[in-house]
Fold:
Amino acid sequence: MVEIKYPVLLINFKAYRQSSGRRAVELAKIAEEVSKERGVTIIVAPQFTDIAPVAQAVEIPVFAQHVDPVSPGAHTGHVTLEAIKDAGAVGTILNHSERRLRIDVIDEIVKRAKELGLITTVCANTPEVSAAVAALNPDMIAIEPPELIGTGIPVSKAKPEVITSTVNLVKKVNPQVKILTGAGITTGDDVAAALRLGTVGVLVASGIVKAKDWRKAIIDLVTPMVS
Amino acid sequence: MVEIKYPVLLINFKAYRQSSGRRAVELAKIAEEVSKERGVTIIVAPQFTDIAPVAQAVEIPVFAQHVDPVSPGAHTGHVTLEAIKDAGAVGTILNHSERRLRIDVIDEIVKRAKELGLITTVCANTPEVSAAVAALNPDMIAIEPPELIGTGIPVSKAKPEVITSTVNLVKKVNPQVKILTGAGITTGDDVAAALRLGTVGVLVASGIVKAKDWRKAIIDLVTPMVS
Amino acid sequence: MVEIKYPVLLINFKAYRQSSGRRAVELAKIAEEVSKERGVTIIVAPQFTDIAPVAQAVEIPVFAQHVDPVSPGAHTGHVTLEAIKDAGAVGTILNHSERRLRIDVIDEIVKRAKELGLITTVCANTPEVSAAVAALNPDMIAIEPPELIGTGIPVSKAKPEVITSTVNLVKKVNPQVKILTGAGITTGDDVAAALRLGTVGVLVASGIVKAKDWRKAIIDLVTPMVS
Amino acid sequence: MVEIKYPVLLINFKAYRQSSGRRAVELAKIAEEVSKERGVTIIVAPQFTDIAPVAQAVEIPVFAQHVDPVSPGAHTGHVTLEAIKDAGAVGTILNHSERRLRIDVIDEIVKRAKELGLITTVCANTPEVSAAVAALNPDMIAIEPPELIGTGIPVSKAKPEVITSTVNLVKKVNPQVKILTGAGITTGDDVAAALRLGTVGVLVASGIVKAKDWRKAIIDLVTPMVS
Structure:
């Protein structure tokens, strides 16, 4: 399994037109440059179809955005952990608010990912769900109140108690799980607040993908992470 | 909220022909008789369409087998907590292996059930999922390895370590949650083993529904529960 | 199979609070009175939990709002055709925009419903989907552009070409299927337009359920259907 | 839209280990060689993660195995038509028995695919579902009785009446749709039978992917297609 150095900026490319195909590779390359310049871990999560080209173009960690709970075999139109690994991914996001999973499926995928040496970041919408996810032993949890996703209103300002409550509950259940803050993050201030509240990084999508200047946006976000 | 006295026998009628319609009422009445004679709590969980007739016919607690994560409103073909309560149910099974739910949905339904004074019994397939569910604060968890459901091979004999591991993990996360043993339970011996391993009751379906003599089968199962 | 005399008013109770539990029975009784007084077929589709009490209280046809594609057996939390029939339903709505179904599942349920003598009304959102559904041989199709559902803007006025195009396409594929108009129907004028455009009835939910005076609302809608 | 010359051999790589990653490219190259040598159209459908590498390596048509019903935007873990097109696909399989779709979703994706110049091949399990799909105007339908998929028992021998009935029903609804035979195809004889029964090609997965000698297996299957 690839060793992740925290804090972390995890960029979810979603299915945005701006971060698809050739542009996925461009965005990943800029993330790689900033990561090297500032010494901060940046993980990129492009669409399934872009994992292979992105993983060939950059050396920073590449994640999938989701995988299906199936092993290789007769599964038309499904995405296996083996397939994303073949394509060059070292981990995956799971249970994003746009792709929620059954509780038994998260358990199954997290266990199989460990066997394959793949990293898992499981999203959660409430402190209770975060604590529940922690019991399944993923590597990271991203706490994201869905009502703030894509709004530009940072959870760290709008609902700081959601973050602190998550940190407390998760620590009790499983202190080894790393916690990221998601939803509404667009500035370095938001990141600084996320770190202050006890999380070790952020999960960002539109805040970077839709920025006019990707390089500037990424630098802004990682600056509070530079030790 | 109805107060449940433990230990408990929870009978899932599933969609079996033998426990549908008029026969659902008959089975519930026999369960009620045995419950009163032996002083053991028996909960019956008939199909949605049978909740109202069953709840009118008996005084023992009636559960639904599932509810959908929606509030009353424009939701064609969905089952709300309010609807099962109107029909006379005092609680519901959730996340059965034949009706698994998303982790955020379990969180949402358990929270809304508490507001409405309804009891929740959430099924789980592994010790880790049981611990995860415990973080969501349901009233009961039923640990049921799906590969044993309907086999007549009791989990308490085939995989006792699944039960003890569940009991240990759940206690650490949330000691207030009651744990039931499910899957493969058909005899009083299986129930005695389930109680010995630290759980406070059993969840049974085919073991009773498919028995030739319902009364005899229920008496056999509750006998080890008589204090 | 119960013989349906057209035109038809099909009332979908959805999961509205106003048409749940005891109030479901009240609404069904008013529908029955108007049906008898005016000699127009009115079908009521209450929630699963209300089918049995409603079917016991009235003699007009009762439908379910949905069924699951499973036969009786080990299916926790599912609704079978047999269960709704036991409860007194003579048919079911399928594929409502709030409960869409897979194409193979509609085929399977329609075929099994025929074997059991149950009537099927399959909803469709476009003329093409209506034509596709017609090839599966249901008894009725309800064409409902989802963007108009619950708006009070009748499809017969806002998009009459959707209705006429549906009527034309369905006739080519399967002239025996009866077509209902749905979405936004609230007045007798809307019903008159629906009949003029070549359909043989309407599917209504909020237009009746949310009306202050149920009796008056139903009378208004069936008046254009009186021959 | 790429012009397809019929008859056609469509190879579904599924999520088989044997046809993943580097081996997906190898299999596609062999398919391309045979296609050029024999002058028969061969389409390859690798996993999402393999579309880009395969499409870069070969000039024969590349299909996806499935797409999700979403436009580009905030859709984590989804596969858009735009994404598969960016990656080099010219079409997609839809509604495979291992990835069934809602009827309205097939309608939506087929319409959007046409706008984007992408070809659609929609699978169907029965003659009635085939006729229903035909009403949605896809380019091709693949009739595949699911009980025969992966068995090596060709539908053209085991259930020829399913094929002929499909051909008849589809022709009545929409004579422009091309029909492929799927399920259990492993030999040239099976392909010859499929063509004789009125279909214009075959959809094959394990019959080729699991063959010891890919080249030989493909040659065997396309030989009856050589005009």
